[in-house]
Amino acid sequence: MTEFKKIASFRNAEEFREYARSIGAELDLVDEPRSGAESQFLTPCAYTSRITGKSATLASRWALLPMEGWDCLPNGAPSPEARRRWLRNAESGAGIFFGCEAVAVMESAKANARQMTLTQETVGEIARLREETVAHAADLFGSDRVPYMGLQLTHSGRFVKTPDDKRLNSHTAYEHPLLDKKFHCDASNVLSDGEVDEIVERFVEAGELAQEAGFDFVDIKCAHGYLGHEFLTAYDRPGKYGGSFENRTRFFRDIVESIKIAAPGLDIGTRLSLGDLIPFEKGPDGVGRPMAWDFDRDGAYPYAFNGDGTGLGVDPEMKELLEFVGLLDELGVTLIGATFGSPYYNPHTQRPAAFAVSDGYLPPEDPLLGVSRQLKTVRALKERRPNLFLIGSGYSYLQEFLPQVGEWVLETGGADMIGLGRSILSYPQMASDYLAGRPLEKRRICRTFGDCTNAPRAGLVSGCYPLDEFYRGREEATLLKEIKNLAKNQS
Ligand SMILES: Cc1cc2nc3c(=O)[nH]c(=O)nc-3n(C[C@H](O)[C@H](O)[C@H](O)COP(=O)(O)O)c2cc1C
Ligand code: SF4
Q1: Ligand 1 contacts CB of residue 395 (under 6 A)
Q2: For ligand 2, is residue 446 a contact (CB within 6 Å)?
Protein backbone atom coordinates (compact mmCIF):
# COMPACT_ATOMS: atom_id res chain seq x y z
CA MET A 1 0.00 0.00 0.00
CA THR A 2 1.27 3.46 -0.90
CA GLU A 3 2.17 5.37 2.27
CA PHE A 4 1.39 9.06 2.19
CA LYS A 5 0.99 11.89 4.65
CA LYS A 6 -2.49 13.21 5.31
CA ILE A 7 -3.05 16.80 4.17
CA ALA A 8 -4.60 17.71 7.54
CA SER A 9 -1.28 16.82 9.21
CA PHE A 10 0.54 19.82 7.67
CA ARG A 11 0.57 22.76 10.09
CA ASN A 12 1.50 25.42 7.54
CA ALA A 13 2.34 26.14 3.92
CA GLU A 14 6.02 25.39 4.39
CA GLU A 15 5.38 21.86 5.68
CA PHE A 16 2.98 21.26 2.78
CA ARG A 17 5.51 22.61 0.27
CA GLU A 18 8.39 20.55 1.61
CA TYR A 19 6.35 17.37 1.49
CA ALA A 20 5.06 18.08 -2.02
CA ARG A 21 8.65 18.57 -3.20
CA SER A 22 9.84 15.42 -1.45
CA ILE A 23 7.40 13.26 -3.42
CA GLY A 24 7.94 15.06 -6.73
CA ALA A 25 4.54 16.80 -6.86
CA GLU A 26 4.93 19.77 -9.21
CA LEU A 27 2.85 22.32 -7.37
CA ASP A 28 3.30 25.15 -4.93
CA LEU A 29 1.19 27.50 -2.84
CA VAL A 30 1.23 30.99 -1.39
CA ASP A 31 2.28 31.23 2.24
CA GLU A 32 -0.96 32.59 3.67
CA PRO A 33 -4.60 32.86 2.61
CA ARG A 34 -5.39 36.14 0.86
CA SER A 35 -8.56 38.15 0.59
CA GLY A 36 -9.95 41.26 -1.10
CA ALA A 37 -7.73 43.00 -3.64
CA GLU A 38 -4.77 40.82 -2.57
CA SER A 39 -6.44 37.68 -3.81
CA GLN A 40 -5.93 36.37 -7.33
CA PHE A 41 -9.47 35.02 -7.14
CA LEU A 42 -10.75 38.59 -7.33
CA THR A 43 -8.53 39.90 -10.11
CA PRO A 44 -10.70 41.17 -12.97
CA CYS A 45 -11.83 38.27 -15.05
CA ALA A 46 -13.46 38.85 -18.41
CA TYR A 47 -14.39 36.11 -20.80
CA THR A 48 -15.39 36.78 -24.38
CA SER A 49 -17.12 34.07 -26.33
CA ARG A 50 -15.81 33.62 -29.85
CA ILE A 51 -19.12 31.97 -30.69
CA THR A 52 -21.54 34.70 -29.56
CA GLY A 53 -19.12 37.64 -29.53
CA LYS A 54 -20.47 38.54 -26.08
CA SER A 55 -18.27 39.37 -23.09
CA ALA A 56 -18.97 38.44 -19.51
CA THR A 57 -17.31 39.88 -16.43
CA LEU A 58 -17.00 37.02 -14.00
CA ALA A 59 -17.65 37.58 -10.29
CA SER A 60 -14.57 35.64 -9.20
CA ARG A 61 -12.02 33.16 -10.47
CA TRP A 62 -13.71 30.31 -8.62
CA ALA A 63 -15.66 28.01 -10.93
CA LEU A 64 -18.11 25.29 -9.98
CA LEU A 65 -17.48 22.01 -11.74
CA PRO A 66 -20.44 19.95 -12.87
CA MET A 67 -21.60 17.67 -10.03
CA GLU A 68 -24.50 15.32 -10.54
CA GLY A 69 -26.75 14.36 -7.66
CA TRP A 70 -28.56 11.51 -9.42
CA ASP A 71 -31.54 12.72 -7.47
CA CYS A 72 -34.00 13.90 -10.12
CA LEU A 73 -37.55 12.75 -10.75
CA PRO A 74 -38.07 9.68 -12.95
CA ASN A 75 -38.72 11.91 -16.00
CA GLY A 76 -35.42 13.75 -15.42
CA ALA A 77 -36.93 16.96 -13.99
CA PRO A 78 -35.26 18.49 -10.93
CA SER A 79 -36.41 17.19 -7.54
CA PRO A 80 -36.43 19.11 -4.24
CA GLU A 81 -32.97 17.61 -3.52
CA ALA A 82 -31.61 18.92 -6.82
CA ARG A 83 -33.13 22.33 -6.07
CA ARG A 84 -31.39 22.35 -2.69
CA ARG A 85 -28.02 21.56 -4.34
CA TRP A 86 -28.33 24.29 -6.96
CA LEU A 87 -29.43 26.94 -4.47
CA ARG A 88 -26.58 26.04 -2.11
CA ASN A 89 -24.19 26.26 -5.05
CA ALA A 90 -25.38 29.83 -5.60
CA GLU A 91 -23.89 30.65 -2.19
CA SER A 92 -20.37 29.93 -3.48
CA GLY A 93 -19.72 33.28 -5.14
CA ALA A 94 -18.32 31.37 -8.15
CA GLY A 95 -17.93 33.24 -11.44
CA ILE A 96 -18.94 30.30 -13.63
CA PHE A 97 -21.14 27.29 -13.11
CA PHE A 98 -19.38 25.09 -15.61
CA GLY A 99 -22.27 22.88 -16.62
CA CYS A 100 -24.03 22.57 -13.24
CA GLU A 101 -24.39 18.82 -13.70
CA ALA A 102 -24.35 16.21 -16.44
CA VAL A 103 -27.73 16.31 -18.12
CA ALA A 104 -28.70 13.44 -20.40
CA VAL A 105 -29.81 14.40 -23.90
CA MET A 106 -32.21 11.45 -24.11
CA GLU A 107 -33.67 8.75 -21.89
CA SER A 108 -31.31 6.06 -23.23
CA ALA A 109 -28.23 8.22 -22.45
CA LYS A 110 -28.61 8.15 -18.65
CA ALA A 111 -25.84 6.94 -16.31
CA ASN A 112 -28.37 6.59 -13.54
CA ALA A 113 -32.16 6.30 -13.47
CA ARG A 114 -32.37 9.61 -11.61
CA GLN A 115 -30.08 11.66 -13.86
CA MET A 116 -31.38 15.06 -14.96
CA THR A 117 -32.66 14.85 -18.55
CA LEU A 118 -33.39 17.75 -20.86
CA THR A 119 -36.56 17.24 -22.91
CA GLN A 120 -39.65 19.21 -23.90
CA GLU A 121 -41.26 17.77 -20.76
CA THR A 122 -38.53 18.92 -18.34
CA VAL A 123 -37.28 22.16 -19.89
CA GLY A 124 -39.73 24.37 -17.98
CA GLU A 125 -38.68 22.98 -14.59
CA ILE A 126 -34.99 23.23 -15.46
CA ALA A 127 -35.50 26.83 -16.63
CA ARG A 128 -37.18 27.67 -13.30
CA LEU A 129 -34.32 26.12 -11.37
CA ARG A 130 -31.77 28.17 -13.32
CA GLU A 131 -33.76 31.33 -12.68
CA GLU A 132 -34.05 30.67 -8.94
CA THR A 133 -30.34 29.91 -8.71
CA VAL A 134 -29.33 33.12 -10.45
CA ALA A 135 -31.80 35.10 -8.33
CA HIS A 136 -30.35 33.61 -5.14
CA ALA A 137 -26.81 34.56 -6.22
CA ALA A 138 -28.03 38.08 -7.07
CA ASP A 139 -29.67 38.43 -3.63
CA LEU A 140 -26.45 37.40 -1.92
CA PHE A 141 -23.78 39.11 -4.01
CA GLY A 142 -25.55 41.70 -6.20
CA SER A 143 -27.10 41.51 -9.65
CA ASP A 144 -23.75 42.35 -11.30
CA ARG A 145 -22.10 39.29 -9.70
CA VAL A 146 -24.25 36.44 -10.92
CA PRO A 147 -22.55 33.34 -12.37
CA TYR A 148 -22.11 32.61 -16.08
CA MET A 149 -24.35 29.57 -16.26
CA GLY A 150 -23.74 26.52 -18.40
CA LEU A 151 -25.50 23.20 -18.71
CA GLN A 152 -23.51 20.05 -19.38
CA LEU A 153 -25.01 17.90 -22.13
CA THR A 154 -24.01 14.27 -22.17
CA HIS A 155 -24.53 10.76 -23.45
CA SER A 156 -23.11 8.27 -20.95
CA GLY A 157 -22.03 5.78 -23.62
CA ARG A 158 -20.28 2.83 -21.98
CA PHE A 159 -21.70 3.84 -18.59
CA VAL A 160 -25.39 4.00 -19.50
CA LYS A 161 -27.44 2.05 -16.96
CA THR A 162 -30.58 -0.02 -17.54
CA PRO A 163 -33.82 1.82 -16.61
CA ASP A 164 -34.05 -0.21 -13.36
CA ASP A 165 -30.51 1.02 -12.53
CA LYS A 166 -29.26 -2.51 -11.88
CA ARG A 167 -26.79 -3.09 -14.69
CA LEU A 168 -24.76 -1.32 -17.34
CA ASN A 169 -26.47 -1.07 -20.70
CA SER A 170 -23.37 0.11 -22.57
CA HIS A 171 -23.51 1.97 -25.87
CA THR A 172 -19.90 2.13 -27.04
CA ALA A 173 -18.02 3.92 -29.79
CA TYR A 174 -15.78 0.94 -30.56
CA GLU A 175 -14.60 -2.45 -29.31
CA HIS A 176 -12.01 -1.68 -26.63
CA PRO A 177 -9.77 -4.60 -25.68
CA LEU A 178 -9.51 -3.66 -21.98
CA LEU A 179 -12.67 -1.70 -21.22
CA ASP A 180 -14.85 -4.35 -22.91
CA LYS A 181 -13.29 -6.92 -20.58
CA LYS A 182 -13.68 -4.73 -17.48
CA PHE A 183 -17.29 -3.74 -18.19
CA HIS A 184 -18.47 -6.92 -19.96
CA CYS A 185 -19.10 -5.47 -23.41
CA ASP A 186 -18.57 -6.79 -26.91
CA ALA A 187 -19.31 -5.94 -30.54
CA SER A 188 -23.05 -5.96 -29.82
CA ASN A 189 -22.66 -2.82 -27.67
CA VAL A 190 -21.10 -0.73 -30.45
CA LEU A 191 -23.45 1.95 -31.77
CA SER A 192 -24.18 1.92 -35.50
CA ASP A 193 -23.55 5.08 -37.57
CA GLY A 194 -27.32 5.57 -37.81
CA GLU A 195 -27.67 5.43 -34.03
CA VAL A 196 -24.84 7.95 -33.65
CA ASP A 197 -26.54 10.28 -36.17
CA GLU A 198 -29.65 10.17 -33.99
CA ILE A 199 -27.67 10.95 -30.82
CA VAL A 200 -26.14 13.98 -32.57
CA GLU A 201 -29.69 15.20 -33.31
CA ARG A 202 -30.69 14.78 -29.66
CA PHE A 203 -27.66 16.89 -28.59
CA VAL A 204 -28.73 19.62 -30.99
CA GLU A 205 -32.31 19.58 -29.70
CA ALA A 206 -30.98 19.72 -26.15
CA GLY A 207 -28.85 22.74 -27.14
CA GLU A 208 -31.99 24.51 -28.36
CA LEU A 209 -33.81 23.65 -25.14
CA ALA A 210 -30.87 24.86 -23.00
CA GLN A 211 -31.08 28.20 -24.79
CA GLU A 212 -34.83 28.30 -24.21
CA ALA A 213 -34.14 27.65 -20.53
CA GLY A 214 -31.91 30.74 -20.41
CA PHE A 215 -28.46 29.17 -20.02
CA ASP A 216 -25.48 31.20 -21.22
CA PHE A 217 -23.72 28.15 -22.63
CA VAL A 218 -23.80 24.40 -23.08
CA ASP A 219 -20.87 22.17 -22.25
CA ILE A 220 -20.55 19.34 -24.77
CA LYS A 221 -18.97 16.67 -22.63
CA CYS A 222 -15.83 15.03 -23.98
CA ALA A 223 -14.58 13.51 -20.76
CA HIS A 224 -14.42 10.65 -18.30
CA GLY A 225 -14.87 7.77 -20.76
CA TYR A 226 -18.39 8.83 -21.76
CA LEU A 227 -19.42 8.72 -25.41
CA GLY A 228 -17.99 12.07 -26.60
CA HIS A 229 -14.64 11.20 -25.02
CA GLU A 230 -14.59 7.66 -26.38
CA PHE A 231 -14.95 8.84 -29.98
CA LEU A 232 -11.63 10.69 -29.72
CA THR A 233 -9.80 7.32 -29.60
CA ALA A 234 -12.06 5.40 -32.02
CA TYR A 235 -9.07 4.55 -34.24
CA ASP A 236 -10.39 1.06 -34.97
CA ARG A 237 -13.98 2.04 -35.74
CA PRO A 238 -14.86 1.72 -39.42
CA GLY A 239 -17.07 4.27 -41.15
CA LYS A 240 -17.56 7.98 -40.82
CA TYR A 241 -17.14 8.19 -37.01
CA GLY A 242 -13.85 6.31 -36.69
CA GLY A 243 -10.29 6.05 -37.96
CA SER A 244 -8.93 9.38 -39.15
CA PHE A 245 -8.82 12.53 -36.99
CA GLU A 246 -11.58 14.01 -39.13
CA ASN A 247 -13.81 11.00 -38.53
CA ARG A 248 -13.06 10.59 -34.80
CA THR A 249 -13.99 14.22 -34.18
CA ARG A 250 -17.05 14.19 -36.43
CA PHE A 251 -19.40 13.47 -33.49
CA PHE A 252 -18.22 16.55 -31.56
CA ARG A 253 -17.90 18.77 -34.64
CA ASP A 254 -21.37 17.95 -35.98
CA ILE A 255 -22.92 18.68 -32.59
CA VAL A 256 -21.17 22.04 -32.24
CA GLU A 257 -21.76 23.16 -35.82
CA SER A 258 -25.42 22.21 -35.69
CA ILE A 259 -26.03 23.86 -32.30
CA LYS A 260 -24.47 27.06 -33.64
CA ILE A 261 -27.12 27.09 -36.38
CA ALA A 262 -30.05 25.86 -34.28
CA ALA A 263 -29.37 28.04 -31.23
CA PRO A 264 -27.55 31.17 -32.37
CA GLY A 265 -26.54 33.30 -29.40
CA LEU A 266 -25.82 30.27 -27.21
CA ASP A 267 -22.19 29.91 -26.15
CA ILE A 268 -20.51 26.49 -26.26
CA GLY A 269 -17.77 25.05 -24.05
CA THR A 270 -16.48 21.56 -23.44
CA ARG A 271 -15.52 19.45 -20.44
CA LEU A 272 -12.45 17.73 -21.80
CA SER A 273 -10.25 15.01 -20.32
CA LEU A 274 -6.91 16.55 -21.32
CA GLY A 275 -5.21 13.22 -20.84
CA ASP A 276 -5.91 9.63 -19.94
CA LEU A 277 -4.10 6.52 -18.68
CA ILE A 278 -4.65 2.82 -19.22
CA PRO A 279 -7.57 1.36 -17.19
CA PHE A 280 -6.65 0.30 -13.66
CA GLU A 281 -8.03 -2.58 -11.58
CA LYS A 282 -7.86 -3.61 -7.96
CA GLY A 283 -4.81 -5.76 -7.21
CA PRO A 284 -4.74 -8.61 -4.62
CA ASP A 285 -3.62 -6.10 -1.95
CA GLY A 286 -6.54 -3.81 -2.77
CA VAL A 287 -4.23 -1.25 -4.42
CA GLY A 288 -4.89 -0.10 -7.99
CA ARG A 289 -2.68 -1.48 -10.75
CA PRO A 290 -2.73 -1.01 -14.52
CA MET A 291 -4.61 -3.72 -16.44
CA ALA A 292 -2.26 -6.03 -18.30
CA TRP A 293 -1.31 -4.96 -21.82
CA ASP A 294 1.09 -6.96 -23.93
CA PHE A 295 3.49 -4.24 -25.08
CA ASP A 296 5.80 -6.82 -26.71
CA ARG A 297 3.00 -8.07 -28.91
CA ASP A 298 0.78 -5.00 -29.30
CA GLY A 299 3.31 -2.19 -29.01
CA ALA A 300 2.32 1.15 -27.54
CA TYR A 301 -1.01 1.45 -25.71
CA PRO A 302 -3.04 3.56 -28.16
CA TYR A 303 -6.38 4.17 -26.41
CA ALA A 304 -5.35 6.80 -23.84
CA PHE A 305 -6.19 10.16 -25.42
CA ASN A 306 -3.07 12.37 -25.35
CA GLY A 307 -1.07 9.54 -23.77
CA ASP A 308 2.61 8.78 -24.26
CA GLY A 309 2.06 5.17 -25.38
CA THR A 310 3.07 3.60 -22.04
CA GLY A 311 -0.48 3.88 -20.70
CA LEU A 312 0.96 5.62 -17.68
CA GLY A 313 1.97 9.07 -18.86
CA VAL A 314 0.93 12.14 -20.84
CA ASP A 315 2.52 12.84 -24.22
CA PRO A 316 5.10 15.55 -23.46
CA GLU A 317 4.44 17.10 -26.89
CA MET A 318 0.64 16.87 -26.42
CA LYS A 319 0.22 16.08 -30.12
CA GLU A 320 -3.34 14.67 -29.98
CA LEU A 321 -4.53 17.32 -27.57
CA LEU A 322 -3.13 20.17 -29.62
CA GLU A 323 -4.68 18.75 -32.76
CA PHE A 324 -8.07 18.61 -31.05
CA VAL A 325 -7.62 22.08 -29.57
CA GLY A 326 -6.85 23.32 -33.10
CA LEU A 327 -10.29 22.06 -34.11
CA LEU A 328 -11.86 23.77 -31.08
CA ASP A 329 -10.19 26.97 -32.19
CA GLU A 330 -11.66 26.62 -35.69
CA LEU A 331 -15.09 26.09 -34.14
CA GLY A 332 -14.67 29.06 -31.78
CA VAL A 333 -14.87 26.87 -28.66
CA THR A 334 -12.36 28.36 -26.21
CA LEU A 335 -14.12 27.71 -22.87
CA ILE A 336 -12.70 24.47 -21.50
CA GLY A 337 -13.42 22.71 -18.23
CA ALA A 338 -10.24 20.71 -17.95
CA THR A 339 -10.30 17.29 -16.33
CA PHE A 340 -8.42 14.01 -16.66
CA GLY A 341 -9.05 10.27 -17.14
CA SER A 342 -12.21 8.58 -15.94
CA PRO A 343 -13.89 7.98 -12.58
CA TYR A 344 -14.76 4.46 -13.73
CA TYR A 345 -11.44 3.03 -14.87
CA ASN A 346 -8.68 5.21 -13.38
CA PRO A 347 -10.38 7.23 -10.62
CA HIS A 348 -7.09 8.11 -8.90
CA THR A 349 -6.27 10.35 -11.88
CA GLN A 350 -9.70 11.97 -12.12
CA ARG A 351 -10.64 12.65 -8.50
CA PRO A 352 -7.53 12.12 -6.35
CA ALA A 353 -8.58 10.74 -2.96
CA ALA A 354 -7.13 9.27 0.20
CA PHE A 355 -9.84 6.60 0.31
CA ALA A 356 -10.98 3.92 -2.14
CA VAL A 357 -14.46 4.12 -3.67
CA SER A 358 -16.57 0.96 -3.43
CA ASP A 359 -15.91 -0.25 -6.98
CA GLY A 360 -12.38 1.19 -7.10
CA TYR A 361 -9.06 0.55 -5.36
CA LEU A 362 -6.65 2.02 -2.84
CA PRO A 363 -4.53 4.81 -4.34
CA PRO A 364 -1.53 3.47 -6.29
CA GLU A 365 0.27 6.80 -5.81
CA ASP A 366 0.21 9.65 -3.34
CA PRO A 367 -3.04 11.45 -4.27
CA LEU A 368 -1.05 14.68 -4.35
CA LEU A 369 0.63 13.32 -7.47
CA GLY A 370 -2.80 12.91 -9.03
CA VAL A 371 -3.52 16.57 -8.30
CA SER A 372 -0.12 17.52 -9.65
CA ARG A 373 -0.74 15.58 -12.91
CA GLN A 374 -3.92 17.57 -13.56
CA LEU A 375 -2.38 20.94 -12.64
CA LYS A 376 0.67 20.29 -14.79
CA THR A 377 -1.36 19.26 -17.84
CA VAL A 378 -3.60 22.33 -17.64
CA ARG A 379 -0.55 24.59 -17.22
CA ALA A 380 1.22 22.99 -20.19
CA LEU A 381 -1.85 23.59 -22.38
CA LYS A 382 -2.26 27.17 -21.13
CA GLU A 383 1.39 27.87 -21.96
CA ARG A 384 0.98 26.56 -25.49
CA ARG A 385 -2.50 28.02 -26.16
CA PRO A 386 -2.92 31.15 -23.99
CA ASN A 387 -6.08 32.13 -25.90
CA LEU A 388 -8.01 29.26 -24.29
CA PHE A 389 -10.05 29.98 -21.17
CA LEU A 390 -9.10 27.07 -18.94
CA ILE A 391 -10.76 25.94 -15.72
CA GLY A 392 -8.65 23.62 -13.57
CA SER A 393 -9.99 20.60 -11.71
CA GLY A 394 -9.01 17.95 -9.17
CA TYR A 395 -8.29 20.39 -6.33
CA SER A 396 -10.53 18.99 -3.57
CA TYR A 397 -7.82 16.67 -2.24
CA LEU A 398 -5.85 19.79 -1.26
CA GLN A 399 -8.40 20.47 1.48
CA GLU A 400 -7.42 23.42 3.73
CA PHE A 401 -4.57 24.30 1.34
CA LEU A 402 -6.84 24.37 -1.72
CA PRO A 403 -7.25 28.17 -1.88
CA GLN A 404 -3.52 28.79 -1.35
CA VAL A 405 -2.55 26.39 -4.13
CA GLY A 406 -5.25 28.05 -6.28
CA GLU A 407 -3.70 31.47 -5.60
CA TRP A 408 -0.33 30.16 -6.78
CA VAL A 409 -1.79 28.58 -9.92
CA LEU A 410 -3.59 31.81 -10.87
CA GLU A 411 -0.62 34.03 -10.01
CA THR A 412 1.72 31.94 -12.15
CA GLY A 413 -0.68 31.69 -15.11
CA GLY A 414 -1.41 27.97 -14.72
CA ALA A 415 -5.16 28.36 -15.35
CA ASP A 416 -7.82 31.05 -15.72
CA MET A 417 -10.10 29.74 -13.01
CA ILE A 418 -9.98 27.17 -10.22
CA GLY A 419 -12.77 24.59 -10.28
CA LEU A 420 -14.45 23.08 -7.24
CA GLY A 421 -15.93 19.60 -7.40
CA ARG A 422 -16.41 17.50 -4.28
CA SER A 423 -15.63 20.38 -1.95
CA ILE A 424 -18.77 22.12 -3.14
CA LEU A 425 -20.90 19.22 -1.92
CA SER A 426 -19.58 19.29 1.62
CA TYR A 427 -19.06 23.04 1.94
CA PRO A 428 -20.69 25.16 -0.79
CA GLN A 429 -19.70 28.41 0.93
CA MET A 430 -15.99 27.54 1.03
CA ALA A 431 -15.18 29.91 -1.85
CA SER A 432 -17.33 32.80 -0.58
CA ASP A 433 -15.93 32.41 2.95
CA TYR A 434 -12.42 32.55 1.51
CA LEU A 435 -13.18 35.56 -0.68
CA ALA A 436 -14.61 37.43 2.31
CA GLY A 437 -11.52 36.66 4.41
CA ARG A 438 -13.46 34.44 6.83
CA PRO A 439 -11.56 31.46 8.24
CA LEU A 440 -12.57 28.16 6.59
CA GLU A 441 -14.83 25.87 8.62
CA LYS A 442 -12.50 22.88 8.93
CA ARG A 443 -15.20 20.39 9.88
CA ARG A 444 -16.95 21.03 6.54
CA ILE A 445 -13.93 20.57 4.27
CA CYS A 446 -14.18 17.55 1.97
CA ARG A 447 -11.79 14.80 3.12
CA THR A 448 -12.26 12.71 -0.04
CA PHE A 449 -14.10 9.86 1.74
CA GLY A 450 -15.83 9.00 -1.54
CA ASP A 451 -19.41 8.45 -0.37
CA CYS A 452 -20.73 10.93 -2.93
CA THR A 453 -19.42 8.41 -5.51
CA ASN A 454 -20.30 5.23 -3.57
CA ALA A 455 -23.95 6.21 -3.22
CA PRO A 456 -24.84 6.57 -6.91
CA ARG A 457 -22.83 3.48 -7.79
CA ALA A 458 -25.26 1.67 -5.45
CA GLY A 459 -28.27 3.36 -7.05
CA LEU A 460 -28.72 5.93 -4.24
CA VAL A 461 -28.84 9.70 -4.52
CA SER A 462 -25.46 11.37 -4.36
CA GLY A 463 -24.47 13.87 -1.67
CA CYS A 464 -21.95 14.36 1.06
CA TYR A 465 -23.20 11.71 3.49
CA PRO A 466 -20.37 12.13 6.03
CA LEU A 467 -20.38 15.92 6.36
CA ASP A 468 -23.76 17.27 5.24
CA GLU A 469 -26.41 16.55 7.88
CA PHE A 470 -29.13 16.65 5.22
CA TYR A 471 -27.78 13.34 3.84
CA ARG A 472 -26.45 11.96 7.12
CA GLY A 473 -29.98 11.77 8.46
CA ARG A 474 -31.55 10.07 5.43
CA GLU A 475 -32.49 6.42 5.20
CA GLU A 476 -30.02 6.11 2.27
CA ALA A 477 -27.18 6.77 4.75
CA THR A 478 -28.03 3.54 6.62
CA LEU A 479 -28.39 1.64 3.35
CA LEU A 480 -25.03 2.97 2.16
CA LYS A 481 -23.34 1.80 5.37
CA GLU A 482 -24.83 -1.70 4.92
CA ILE A 483 -23.75 -1.86 1.27
CA LYS A 484 -20.20 -0.79 2.18
CA ASN A 485 -19.98 -3.35 5.02
CA LEU A 486 -21.19 -6.08 2.70
CA ALA A 487 -18.57 -5.12 0.09
CA LYS A 488 -15.85 -5.08 2.78
CA ASN A 489 -16.79 -8.56 4.02
CA GLN A 490 -16.83 -9.94 0.48
CA SER A 491 -13.39 -8.62 -0.45
C1 LIG B 1 -20.55 12.85 -7.00
C2 LIG B 1 -19.83 13.39 -8.20
C3 LIG B 1 -20.56 13.81 -9.30
C4 LIG B 1 -19.90 14.31 -10.42
N5 LIG B 1 -20.63 14.70 -11.48
C6 LIG B 1 -20.01 15.17 -12.59
C7 LIG B 1 -20.76 15.58 -13.72
O8 LIG B 1 -21.99 15.59 -13.70
N9 LIG B 1 -20.07 15.99 -14.81
C10 LIG B 1 -18.71 16.04 -14.85
O11 LIG B 1 -18.13 16.43 -15.87
N12 LIG B 1 -17.98 15.68 -13.78
C13 LIG B 1 -18.59 15.25 -12.66
N14 LIG B 1 -17.85 14.92 -11.56
C15 LIG B 1 -16.40 15.18 -11.57
C16 LIG B 1 -16.12 16.55 -10.97
O17 LIG B 1 -16.66 17.59 -11.77
C18 LIG B 1 -14.61 16.80 -10.77
O19 LIG B 1 -13.95 16.70 -12.01
C20 LIG B 1 -13.96 15.83 -9.83
O21 LIG B 1 -14.75 15.61 -8.68
C22 LIG B 1 -12.54 16.31 -9.43
O23 LIG B 1 -12.60 17.58 -8.83
P24 LIG B 1 -12.53 17.72 -7.23
O25 LIG B 1 -11.17 17.22 -6.83
O26 LIG B 1 -12.73 19.16 -6.92
O27 LIG B 1 -13.61 16.87 -6.67
C28 LIG B 1 -18.49 14.40 -10.43
C29 LIG B 1 -17.76 13.99 -9.31
C30 LIG B 1 -18.40 13.50 -8.21
C31 LIG B 1 -17.59 13.08 -7.02
S1 SF4 C 1 -18.75 12.32 0.47
FE2 SF4 C 1 -18.25 14.40 1.17
S3 SF4 C 1 -16.23 14.25 2.14
FE4 SF4 C 1 -16.57 12.41 0.93
S5 SF4 C 1 -15.65 12.84 -1.04
FE6 SF4 C 1 -17.78 13.36 -1.24
S7 SF4 C 1 -17.90 15.53 -0.72
FE8 SF4 C 1 -15.94 14.78 0.01
Answers
A1: yes
A2: yes
